[in-house]
Design brief:
Distance between the termini: 58 Å
Strand content: 15-25%
Structural class: alpha/beta
EC number: 1.2.1.16, 1.2.1.20, 1.2.1.79
CATH superfamily of the largest domain: Aldehyde Dehydrogenase, Chain A, domain 1
Bound molecules: NADP nicotinamide-adenine-dinucleotide phosphate
Largest sheet: 7 strands, mixed
Radius of gyration: 23 Å
Enzyme class: oxidoreductase
Number of domains: 2
GO biological process, one term: gamma-aminobutyric acid catabolic process
CATH architecture of the largest domain: 3-Layer(aba) Sandwich
Helix content: 25-40%
CATH topology of the largest domain: Aldehyde Dehydrogenase, Chain A, domain 1
Strand order of the largest sheet: 14-15-16-13-12-17-18
Number of strands: 20
GO molecular function, one term: succinate-semialdehyde dehydrogenase (NAD+) activity
Shape: globular
Protein name: Succinate-semialdehyde dehydrogenase/glutarate-semialdehyde dehydrogenase
């Protein structure tokens, strides 16, 4: 496959000539080397996106829609190869990678359908003096920065709406997983995306490259998915040129189980909310709050299910949990678990890093976790479930909201009124009631508090790439 930069429809080496290695998380071995984009390449990509902008914005919505629809078809036809590539560079189990390809392709189909649903508004001014006409226009050149945990889906969730709206883009993928992004570039070109409309720029110096693009006044939008820490830095940089921003940041999801819940459903939901993607998801359940009457049984049953999972290389068909993406991630997970154990928690299953090559961590369930343990404050991003008990609805809501994050929450109860009441009281952009999975291309995904600004997916996802222009008309 191509491993150079993709700029203005061509594969080009980095202007410095440098390259960087991509590692297999199952072994730590090098699997490929990729062109390492620098600041000059970033400006060349902005140049290409700016030059392609007017033509793409003027392309009919139907034609833009059909390009996205072809991208969906191609992705679906090549799902098996793409899943293998994702699994190779990210480490996730093939079943997770296949799920990601389906989810990622769906953003192309959804936004192919949204592309032709452009709408504005017309009203009479309250004074009666004139009409108020509102038209929606593409924001312009967009810089898209994505993380390694869903290398395909986080890219399509941005490229789909941007292209549907008539914007041109530069995608800067995570340096741990650039191969999937490069495969997407080739696929989009084959689907008929004109030269310069989508540019892909892998880089090991992400900070410098993204800053250079944000300083270029032709860039009008930054859509970022990644950690809250980097999001804060980029928000400050975007302020310089007052660049429009969408921020999908970290999460610290509470998973609340009331004593009246269907425990079978709660365990199934917990396995999905915790173990999808091996726990490396911003939506991953990070804190389990279980009402005291059922906490013992919940912990025992969850630990049983977690201990039965098959851990191994992601590309092995039998694997249910692959390695984590890199050494830093596994060291962080290990540190958080050790901290919890030192603070008095017990590991019902798992709890220590195995010896040997690869970035593996075993599925782990912790009970008796101290209220001030860092594992309850920070994103774990691994297969670890800390359980805390509570009594009553007020305490559940207080514990759930005791975090700077507000991406998603899960609530299990048989009482629908309580489920809805608690959903409204929890400070989160999304809530799953009796469901461990909320992500859906047709729904607005995003967080409140320090989990982000803006929404991706649904109709809202398209609006992030459009500006409203108001025209006052006399007629
Ligand atoms: P990250 O370290 O914040 O990196 C995300 C992206 O930003 C990568 O492409 C990275 O490039 C780049 N980057 C890093 N430092 C930068 C800087 N100073 N300036 C510009 N770009 C920079 O996050 P990650 O570790 O890849 O991903 C995990 C995080 O993403 C978690 O916090 C997770 O919750 C969050 N996430 C959120 C959502 C959501 O929708 N809310 C979805 C998925 C993941 P390099 O790879 O080269 O460092």
């Amino acid at each position: 496959m191509e491993t150079d930069l993709f700029i203005a429809g061509k594969w080009v080496p980095a202007s410095s000539g440098s390259r960087f290695d991509v590692l297999d998380p199952a072994t730590g071995d090098t699997i490929a080397s990729v062109a390492d984009g620098g600041e000059a390449d970033a400006i060349a990509a902005v140049e290409a996106a700016a030059a392609a902008g007017p033509g793409w914005a003027a392309t009919s919505p139907r034609a833009r829609s059909e390009v996205l629809r072809r991208a969906f078809t191609l992705m679906t036809e090549r799902a098996a190869d793409l899943a293998k590539l994702i699994s190779l560079e990210n480490g996730k189990a093939l079943t997770d990678a296949k799920g990601e390809v389906t989810y990622a392709a769906e953003f192309f189909r959804w936004f192919a359908e949204e592309a032709v649903r452009g709408e504005g508004a017309i009203a009479t001014a309250p004074s009666g003096a004139n009409r108020i006409l509102v038209v929606r226009q593409p924001v312009g050149v967009c810089v898209l920065v994505t993380p390694w945990n869903f290398p395909a889906a986080m890219a399509t969730r941005k490229i789909g709406p941007a292209l549907a709206a008539g914007c041109t883009v530069i995608l800067k993928p995570a340096s741990d997983t650039p191969l999937t992004a490069l495969a997407m570039a080739a696929l989009l070109a084959e689907a008929g995306v004109p030269d310069g409309v989508v540019n892909v720029l892998p880089s090991r110096s992400s900070g410098r490259v993204v800053s250079a693009m944000l300083r270029d006044s032709r860039v009008r939008k930054l859509s970022f998915t990644g950690s809250t820490e980097v999001g804060r830095i980029l928000l400050a940089q975007a302020a310089e040129n007052v660049v429009n921003t969408s921020m999908e940041l970290g999460g610290n999801a509470p998973f609340v189980v009331f004593a009246d819940a269907d425990l079978d459903a709660a365990i199934e939901g917990a396995m999905i909310a915790k173990m999808r993607n091996g726990g490396e998801a911003c939506t991953a359940a990070n804190r389990f709050f279980v009402e005291s009457g059922v906490a013992g049984e919940f912990a025992r049953r969850l630990a049983q299910r977690m201990s039965e999972l098959v851990v191994g290389p992601g590309t092995d068909e039998r694997t249910q949990v692959g390695p984590l993406v890199n050494e830093d991630t596994v060291a962080k997970v290990d540190g958080l678990v050790r901290g919890a154990l030192d603070g008095g928690a017990s590991a019902v299953t798992g709890g220590s890093r195995p010896a040997g090559p690869g970035f593996y961590y075993p599925p782990t369930v912790l009970t008796g976790v101290a209220a001030d343990a860092p594992i309850l404050r920070e994103e774990i991003f691994g297969p670890v479930a800390p359980i805390v008990t509570f009594t009553g609805e007020d305490e559940a809501v207080r514990l759930a909201n005791d975090t700077e994050y507000g991406l998603v929450a899960y609530v299990y109860t048989r009482d629908l009124a309580r489920g809805l009441r608690v959903s409204e009281a929890i400070e989160a952009g999304m809530v799953g009631i009796n469901r461990g999975l909320v992500s859906d291309p047709a729904a607005p995904f995003g967080g409140v508090k320090q989990s982000g600004i803006g929404r991706e997916g649904g109709h809202e996802g398209l609006l992030e790439y459009l500006e409203s222009k108001y025209i006052a008309v006399n007629w």
